[in-house]
Amino acid sequence: MSTVWLQVGQCGNQIAQELWHILGLVNGSCGKMDKNPFCSRDGKLSAICVDSEYKVIKKMQKQVKKGLFRESNLIIGKQGRGKNWACGYYNKPLNCEESLLYNTMERLRKEVELRDCYSGTVLFHSLSGGTGAGLGSHLCEEIRDEYPLGQILSVTVAPYQTGECPLQHYNVLLCLSWLQRYTDGVFLFHNDDVLRRTIASQGKKNLQDSRVLSQVSLSSMNTYIADCVAGLLCPVSNFQTASGLSIGVEPWELLRAVCPAPTMKFLHVAQTSTRGQVLWDSMVSSVTRFLAPESSTGDPHYSTSLLSVVRSNHCSLIQPQSSAMKRLQRAYGCVSWNPFPLSLWTASYDMRDSTGQRHSLTVCANHSSIIDLLKHTVEKAQKMYSAKAYIHWYRQYGCEGKDFEQAFDTLSSVETEYYSARE
Q: Which segments of 132-279 are extended strands (E)?
């Protein structure tokens, strides 16, 4: 009950909606507060849904009628943001009270006032969309300024490297730099990685077959991301009181576990699950299957900290010093200078199946693979910027050269921090 959930743009709203479905909240019933810390005392979901277009938000009207969402928390603009970060960040109507930014911050203020104790905001959005990246960046800045003691966790998605939009490298550059400056942690999902893991979870083996790739729906990929978020943020046994009641959702405990250094906050998240008999070593092999062992330059990847969340009625069989957890640490390349790189959280059942038939392993790592995305983004954006490609599309909304230069400097400093943290 200390967290506000903020869904921004098409991608952010779709992922969050999948999350509410996984948690069984789409029927409009939050149930007891100790079992559903995602809701307020009145049983309404503590979520604000924002988009510059109507098509995604309108699907949530059914949940409003069922009593899950407050209708006033559905905030809709009158036109899209053209997949342009500057349009999403700077574009304001003449009447301030009609702006998405103003209306969203007003609803956030009212949600904060409903909290017993406001601890922070979880933001769902994308890195490449005009609303998700641009407005999402501005909201992070405003929330940090308005509630400096509250923490901000971003759940965001990077586009395919092969390209989704001609402006995506600029959008990713600018959004990542804003997230670095104003958030406390970022669950960073890559569409390429999510696609591979979604295919594998469906039991398909030929990951290079174009026919197999085309059969994977966007909804399936969103479900995988939402599964990972639920696996990390649902209550666990480690944070139960003596009476057996959960103290609530733990995104802030998670950030303390995996983001000990404020300059290194980009987190790699992966999950695997099985039904029936569970073999933890096999699940570790599955979750680390697509983990890149080294960077594009040949340097071994490493993790400064690692969180493993096990949800199973057999979780008592797995301990921090077990062979499966040691294997997990080796696969993620935990640094030697951290004496306690692994945190293990457990829950007696998986949120998707309370009968105990489903077992899941979710891993969150402060992993150096972010360097590859940073280098790719900076190199592509720098080439475009040097050629002055599409710059006028940003300047027309007020985005100046200093925004780009500051973004280049910010991401370069992040890359340096990750290199220097190597053992």
A: 151-158, 185-190, 266-275
